UniProtKB/TrEMBL annotation:
Keywords: Repeat, WD repeat. Belongs to the WD repeat PROPPIN family. It holds the Pfam family PROPPIN. InterPro entries: PROPPIN, WD40/YVTN_repeat-like_dom_sf, WD40_repeat_dom_sf. It comes from the Eukaryota. This is Uncharacterized protein. It comes from Euplotes crassus.
Length: 367
């Protein structure tokens, strides 16, 4: 449920999954969990289109919604502004203008990753004016994958995954520290599939990829560029828009715009070797399917059936602990569900209307 006049535009967990940032038509919010607590609520004049928490929630970066009255589109180029705000110091760190639409923003080790239609801009937090630009294929869905990099380590690779083109790669992974590039050719361009979602595991050794084919998620070995296996999320094609490695890279969470969330267990090296050639499609360990706030359908080791949800149920999920999963929907609800692999039903521990549950500002830093 959304509060009157407020619409959820963007959802993002911090990389350590301790915070949830929510960008809305009225501003943005920051939550912590167990119990679910609103720790920050900020009004932004034109609302927030995209948001990413940086540095454990102390710094928030967001893309403002474009003002309808700021300029006439036929006379002036499109304007989008990236605002970086330090709430610990209560100061605006930077405000950057982009003339082309920003499709997504990610954060990795004092670096912002700005995704646009044909490029990715790498913006260092200590050098905003000199971004590095990486050319990509047309990125209709803002697909981007990144590794988890500890803030204090200096010797880690900083990998990002981007859509390529038929001539250079279907997908490529690049280390932005030294420009090392790994190219993948699984045949997406041949079948005219467009990449909708990408993600790298925490070590940068595995790449997960989903396309407009809408049924399977491919897992690749980054070093040798081989496809290890494919997960089947169902018989019916759906728009897969969220991938997240969990539990020390042992599991993969997948969500699509029909409101379904799947959890896959990754295979060990021995299990991969035991698979027969041509038989490398594996079903989800379970799936959630959100049809309305009061009803959560839950299945284990069953293939996803066709559901007639509106294709706008953006969901993001994470594992809080063993057999406890949290899913946040842009409909305004946060779900905590526990499950047992031997049962076919989940227990919904909590369903929080996170927009209207906290109608007042706990903190306010107004424009």
């Amino acid at each position: 449920m959304e509060t009157a006049g407020e619409k959820v535009n963007s959802l993002r967990f911090s990389r350590d999954y301790l915070y949830l940032a929510v960008g809305t038509s009225l501003g943005y919010r920051l939550y912590t969990f167990q119990p679910t607590t609103l720790v920050l609520k900020v009004a932004v004049t034109n609302g927030v289109k995209l948001i990413i928490p940086c540095s454990n929630g102390n710094i928030i970066s967001y893309i403002e919604n474009s003002s309808n009255t700021e300029c006439e589109p036929e006379k002036e180029a499109r304007k989008e502004y990236l605002v970086i705000y330090n709430h610990l110091k209560n100061t605006q760190v930077a405000k950057l203008r982009f003339s082309k639409e920003v499709l997504d923003i990610r954060y990795m080790k004092s670096t912002l990753i700005i995704v646009q239609s044909y490029s990715v801009k790498i913006v260092k937090m200590d050098d905003y004016k000199n971004p590095t630009i990486i050319k990509t294929a047309e990125n209709l869905y803002g697909a981007i994958g990144i590794t988890f990099c500890a803030e204090t380590k200096t010797d880690e690779s900083q990998l990002i995954a981007c859509p390529g083109s038929e001539s250079d790669a279907d997908v490529f992974v690049i280390d932005i520290k030294d420009d090392t590039r790994y190219c993948f050719f699984p045949g997406y361009a041949t079948y005219q599939y467009v990449v909708t979602a990408l993600e790298l595991n925490s070590q940068g050794t595995l790449l997960a990829s989903a396309t407009t084919e809408g049924k399977n998620i491919d897992i690749f070995d980054v070093q040798d560029r081989s496809k290890l296996y494919s997960f089947s999320r169902g018989m019916f094609p759906k728009h897969i828009d969220y991938l997240s490695f969990q539990q020390n890279d042992q599991e993969l969470i997948v969500s699509s715009l029909d409101g379904a969330v799947h959890l896959f267990y990754l295979l060990t090296d021995q299990e991969i070797k035991e698979q027969q050639e041509g038989n490398t499609f594996f079903k989800a360990a379970f799936d959630f399917a959100f049809s309305k706030p009061s009803e959560v359908k839950f299945k284990i080791n069953r293939e996803q059936t066709e559901v007639n949800f509106e294709d706008n149920k953006k969901c993001i999920s994470c594992k809080l602990e063993k057999n406890l999963i949290m899913t946040v929907s842009n409909s305004g609800y946060l779900y905590l569900g526990s499950y047992k692999e031997e049962n076919e039903e989940a227990i919904i521990e909590e369903a929080v209307d996170y927009l209207s549950k906290y109608p007042k500002h706990t903190q306010s830093y107004l424009d």
